Amino acid sequence: MKKLFAIIAVVAMVLGLTACAPKETGPKTIKVGIAIYKFDDTFMTNYRNEMKAYFETKNSDTVKYEVEVTDGKNDQVAQTEQIDNFIAQDYDVLIINLVDLTAASTIIAKVKAANIPTVFINRQPSDADMATWDKITYVGAKAEDSGTYQGEIIVDLWEATDSKVDKNGDDKLQYVMLMGQAIHQDAALRTEYSIKAVEAAGIVVDKLFEDRGEWDRVKGQEKMATAITQFGDAIEVVFANNDDMALGAIEALVAAGMTDVPVVGVDATAPALDAIKNGTLKGTVLNDSDGQAHTSVDSAIKLLNGEAVDVLQWVPYVKVTPENYEDFIK
Ligand code: GAL
Ligand code: CA
Predict the structure, then answer these.
(1) Which residues have CB atoms below 5 A from the ion given as ligand 2?
(2) What is the pTM of this model?
(3) CA distance 178 to 220
(4) By residue range, what is the domain housing residue 121?
(5) In sequence order, which residues have a C-beta less than 8 Å from that of residue 52 and are 6 or more positions away?
(6) Does a structural domain hold residue 8?
(7) What is the CATH number of the domain that holds 121?
């Protein structure tokens, strides 16, 4: 009996203590889940590092952002599992760089059901998908513009007084197009608008070769080597949907002794700016990973605070040439 009373007394004390325990102090923790389509991508690596760094600057006495970043390894099944885990662990907000845009509707249905505001980045879900919930937003850059700028860089080279672009003097531009992943709106739009800009300047184009380097430097080099085997000196210019493929193409051109062929890319990564400096890359377009990272993080915080954000948010591209490349070196 005595023992029982003793136990009851202890239990009562513990309960009492917990009830009277002072409220926890210190910052409130916000769990942020970031899903990247794959880590092995130069542009998205800059982007995710900047998001992490920028979240750090948002920590204060009242809030602490706990950021977890996952590698989708270019596999939508793996990424969906990572997102399911974020949801199961009650994350407060998500930032998602989808692997496969056709998964957008499924993913949006999941975050909506769990009421977790979500920022989509870099790969744009359809307007119909975006219209299905008001706590989602997309942050990106207008791919058309990057294509147009690439075309304009080539037009300027073609129209220069000492231009040697038209090697065979037939008044047509014989070109190679190295494209990014088929699933990505940037690949299709850069391909289309770069050529449109050239044609808008009254230049007749002649497509020699077009293939996918999937955003990848090694694949860009391999596809370019194939193009060189097939068309050799007939190639007058190379458009690459991004800098990694442009740098791969330059490797193939150097190996073939064809360094006179102008190459343009997109992103303005550090190695691309180096290549502009040493003259192997004729131009690129800034795909502003810092600006997009900041807008994404700011949007995530606004959505968390119940503030409204636009459904689509655009960060501008900037044309980068030998004249201004130094402005973009970090
Ligand atoms: C593009 C970028 C590419 C690649 C791709 C990934 O915007 O130009 O280099 O990072 O996104 O989705
Ligand atoms: Ca020609």
Answers:
(1) 166, 168, 170, 172, 174
(2) 0.92
(3) 7
(4) 29-141+289-315
(5) 34, 67, 69
(6) no
(7) 3.40.50.2300
Give the model confidence (pLDDT) of 235-261 as tens digits: 999 999 999 999 999 999 999 999 999
Residues 118 and 242 occupy one common structural domain:
no
Residue type (1 letter), 211: D
Q: Which atom of ligand 1 is nearest to the CA of 287?
A: 8
What are the Cα distances from residue 136, in Å, to 111, 303, 310?
Answer: 9, 8, 9
**Whose CA is closest to atom 6 on ligand 1?**
44
The per-residue pLDDT for range 67-104, each reduced to its tens digit, is 999 999 999 999 999 999 999 999 999 999 999 999 99
Residue 312 is encoded by which pair of tokens? 């689509």
* Residues in the chain, pLDDT under 50: 16-17
CA of 215 to the centre of ligand 1 (A): 7
Query: Is residue 198 a contact partner of residue 155, using CB atoms and an 8 Å limit?
Result: yes
**What pLDDT is stored for residue 7 in this prediction?**
57
